[in-house]
Amino acid sequence: MSDLVDFTKRGAVGVITVNNPPVNALSVGVPQGIVEGVKAGNADPEIKAMVLVGGGRGFIAGADISEFFNPPKEKAVTIFDVLDALEASDKPVVAGVHGNALGGGLEVALACHYRCGVASAHFGLPEVKLGILPGAGGTQRLPRLIGPERALPLIVSGDFVPADKALELSIIDLVVAGDITSGAIDYANKLVADGSNLRRIRDIQTPKPSSDAFFADFEKSIARRARGFLAPFNIIKCVQAAVDLPFDEGIARERELFDECMKSEQARGLMHLFFAERTCTKIPDVPKDTPKKKIDTAAILGAGTMGGGIAMNFLNVGIPVTLVERDQEALDRGLGIIRGNYENTAKKGRITQDDVEARMGLINASTDYQDIAEADIVIEAVFEEMDIKKEVFAKIDEIAKPDAVLATNTSTLDVDEIAAATKRPESVIGTHFFSPANVMKLLENVRGAKSSKETIATVMDIGKKIGKVPVLVGICDGFVGNRMLHHYGREAYKLLMEGALPQDVDGALYDYGLAMGPFAMGDLAGLDVGWRIRKRKMAELGLNRSDSPVSDELCERGRYGQKTGAGWYRYEKGNRTPIPDPEVKELILAESEREGMKRRTITTEEIVQRCMYQLVNEGAKILEEGIALRASDIDVIYANGYGFPRYRGGPMFYADRVGLKSVYDTVSKFYDEHGEAWKPAPLLKRLAEKGETFNAQNPGR
Ligand code: 3HC
Ligand code: NAI
Questions:
Q1: Ligand 1 pocket member 100 (CB < 6 A)
Q2: What's the CA-to-centroid distance between 559 and ligand 2, angstroms?
Q3: What is the 3-state secondary structure (H, E, C) of 494-554?
Q4: Lowest model confidence (mean pLDDT) among 61-75, 277-291, 319-333, 509-523
Q5: Are strands 428-433 and 442-446 parallel, antiparallel or unpaired?
Q6: Range 171-183 average pLDDT
Q7: Residue 586 annotated among the catalytic residues of the structure
Q8: Interval 22-46 mean pLDDT
Q9: What's residue 700's pLDDT?
Q10: Ligand nearest to the CA of 525
């Protein structure tokens, strides 16, 4: 028996237990152990049934993703052998699930004759999130078991369902109380006593969808969201095969479509991000066992755009929040927006009205700073002015308890200067949330020169607890994400001057996979914010023109973006679709002429390269300066904070896959053509010359 799987006898039931921490992935040795367990159970006349359970945290979390890139050298027993052994067993096998049954784990459970789980168990086929599809019969067995109309959305979304929902869907047959092994054994004994037959899902005829147009309609419903992404469309084909083809032919079709996904760049990109999002929480000089402060209460200063959203993250996980504003009016406005957001979520059926009240009930709204005294973490989200921030931090320092974490949500200011306003800079750190803060996953934690390891460990930990993807960055103008974005935006503007129009640039980047291009994004965020910053800088430097005169002129004309019905585009009332506007074209042409540009047609390829390689070149500088710890951290930042297509793995991974030599050559060519803004980053040059990549450490590279 493999040492990753146990076989024990409990009366007339053989118990096969997978022990491959931390998540019981189906690594080499596990399939062999399960097959041997099934054999042992069948060979023992005293045994009447078997149960398959996971030891430790859960059942089985699927294939071992790292093995996709480092396949075992010798021929090993595979998951397919497990499925055959389970399905062919002469004695019933019951899957007993606690924790998670995911991907190949759920597929193994579907090859068992019966399934049960504890109430806290979760079930899902998340392969799509890795750019692949369930390749061990999941797309053929699940539709047979629960029908294609219920199976398809589950597989395409990759969502997990809890045990009660899994029971309702008939994915499992029973929810058991108490310990999973005992519950599954009791269930197996009952099945034997009842003389239950061996239920093999492969023998079920898949029910037909209620409408002939089901698959075509489903495809249409995801067309925009999943544009350019292979796996969801291949999943639709698989489930259609489960309806149209006999089981074995369906399995062959699944294999073919799985292989196509597996060989794709998209799967590489997504698997890179899977590991990158786990690596980013590991800080070399802040080991895992660094003490963390317990965060049971939070205080947030400022209930504006960001403060309200930040508060919601804590409320959503049951952490009480003291929300402090300057005056009652601002406080009421902030509370109203939080309540409105929750009410909308309740209207969509995602939470109940009781949840709304429970979350609102966790807010202690105040206009008195003294109320922050007991908070474990204080997060400042007031106006972006250094003098105000310093005054606020001096006040926090007087009131907050000695071991509180003091965090600032500043997006541009120097965290060290803010920390210096206190007598405890070791407790100060940046927590840079992204707007809308209750939605965006990214959290850039900004390490100050004096931030203690304990402070860092605490904010990385609490970030995860409130559902964010926390990435540790250093101090520089714009930190990682916005600093890179500045170069990308500047290049996009240059493209307008050289010959493109906003819709050309946005269209090319949208087709590349971004949620939206820079001009549509500007209209969404509001052009007036940047305009005010530019005006202030111009006044400070005594300049009469900014580096973005067309944007300035749009604002002069009251075109602030979607909120005023016009910006880089115009908008019909109540509609967010950007419509190209001749007035903007005229402005661009005039400015382009004023700059003496000879306009030319710019290809989609050049637009994508110019925008992406600005990100990459600046990313390389950020890496060399140590502002980001790893290239994969930058990828995580872009995938979670900037609508970067996840299937491309992030900008640095994208560059790796293009090949750094090719990227460097193109950057050098742009440097010759366009000057200083394209000066190649020394790190990019070095890696290109050595034939290396940015992301050398992740299995998905
Ligand atoms: N393969 C390899 N390693 C895995 C893994 C897997 N399937 N699942 C998790 N791990 C590793 C993580 O990389 C991490 O390693 P680290 O500690 O060295 O960073 C460790 O296990 C713990 O993982 P998490 O930090 O993610 O732990 P959580 O408790 O937060 O989450 C989980 C647990 C929900 C199981 C989450 O890890 C997860 O979603 N895993 C992936 C599940 C999945 O996608 N399964 C499908 C795989 S593909 C497949 O099965 C193909 C089949 O159809 C043929
Ligand atoms: P906002 O103007 O919407 O909200 C600021 C709030 O702080 C206002 O409600 C104001 O009344 C309150 N306030 C001002 N002084 C205060 C004080 N002394 N005590 C208590 N409350 C006070 O601003 P927004 O957009 O929420 O920004 C807040 C911070 O978050 C800024 O530092 C900003 O740079 C940063 N940020 C903003 C992002 C955005 O997209 N808006 C994104 C990431 C960070």
A1: yes
A2: 23
A3: HHHHHCCCHHHHHHHHHHHCCCCCHHHHHHHHCCHHHHHHHHHHHHHHCCCCCCCHHHHHH
A4: 61-75
A5: antiparallel
A6: 97
A7: no
A8: 97
A9: 41
A10: 2
**Parallel, antiparallel, or unpaired: how do β-strands 13-18 and 5-10 relate?**
antiparallel
Domain boundaries, given as residue ranges, for the chain: 5-262, 298-479, 489-690
Query: What is the spatial distance between Cα 85 and Cα 37, in angstroms, rounded to a whole number?
Result: 10
Judge residue 423's burial from the number of C-beta atoms within 10 Å of its C-beta, 0-12 exposed, 13-18 middle, 19 or more buried: exposed
Secondary structure of residue 389 in the 3-state scheme: helix
Q: Give the count of beta carbons closer than 10 Å to the beta carbon of residue 373.
A: 14
Q: Is 260 a catalytic residue?
A: no
Cα 393 from chain centroid (whole Å)? 32
Beta strands in 525-683 (DSSP E): none
What sign has the CA pseudo-torsion 233, 238, 244, 249?
positive
Q: Would you say the CB of residue 594 lies under 6 angstroms from ligand 1?
A: no
User: For 182-203, how does the pLDDT look when each residue is reduced to its tens digit (9 = 90+)?
Assistant: 999 999 999 999 999 999 999 9
What pTM does this model have? 0.95
The pick from 24, 65, 133 for probing ligand 1's pocket by mutation, whose C-beta has the most ligand atoms within 8 angstroms, reads 65
Does 155 contact ligand 1 (Cβ within 6 A)? Answer: no
Out of 1.20.1300.10, 1.10.1040.50, 3.40.50.300, 1.10.10.10, select the CATH number for domain 489-690: 1.10.1040.50
Q: With respect to CATH, is domain 298-479 assigned 3.40.50.620?
A: no
Ligand 1 mean position, distance from CA 379 (Å): 32
Whole-angstrom distance, CA of residue 139 vs CA of residue 132: 12
Q: Is the CB of 277 under 6 A from ligand 1?
A: no
3-state SS class at 28: coil
Report the distance separating Cα 350 and Cα 347, nearest Å: 8
What is the model's pLDDT at position 698? 47
| 506's tokens | 């946005």
**What are the CA-CA distances from residue 598 to residues 364, 492, 504, 550, 677 (Å)?**
60, 17, 17, 17, 20
Dist. CA 489–CA 484, nearest whole Å:
9
Does residue 522 line the site of ligand 1, with CB under 6 A?
no
Tell me, in angstroms, the distance from the centre of ligand 1 to residue 698's CA.
14
Residue with CA nearest ligand 1 atom 46: 103
For residue 5, the CA-to-ligand 2 centroid distance in Å is: 54
Mean pLDDT, rounded, for 593-621: 97
Identify which ligand lies nearest to the alpha carbon of 279.
1
Number of Cβ within 10 Å of residue 331's Cβ equals: 17
Query: Which of 371, 382, 468, 483 has the most ligand 2 atoms within 8 A of CB, as the residue to mutate?
Result: 382
Rounded alpha-carbon distances, angstroms, from residue 519 to 272, 372, 545, 584:
29, 40, 20, 12
How many whole angstroms separate alpha carbon 680 and alpha carbon 293? 42
User: Is 278's C-beta closer than 6 angstroms to any atom of ligand 1?
Assistant: yes
CA of 23 to the centre of ligand 1 (A): 6
Name the residue among 645, 652, 651 with its Cα closest to residue 697.
652
> Is any atom of ligand 1 closer than 6 Å to the C-beta of 31?
no
CA torsion angle 370 372 373 376 (round to 10): 180
Tokens at 253, concatenated: 């079709």
C-alpha 310 – ligand 2 centre gap (Å): 11
Catalytic residue among 67, 74, 127, 591: 127
* Topology, domain 5-262: 2-enoyl-CoA Hydratase; Chain A, domain 1 (3.90.226)
Report the interhelical angle of 214-222 vs 148-157 (nearest 10°). Answer: 20
Q: Using the mean position of ligand 2's atoms as its centre, give its distance from the Cα of residue 307 in Å.
A: 7
Residue holding tokens 């055959």? 84
Which residue, by CA, sits nearest to atom 25 of ligand 2? 305
* Residue 126, ligand 1, Cβ within 6 A: yes
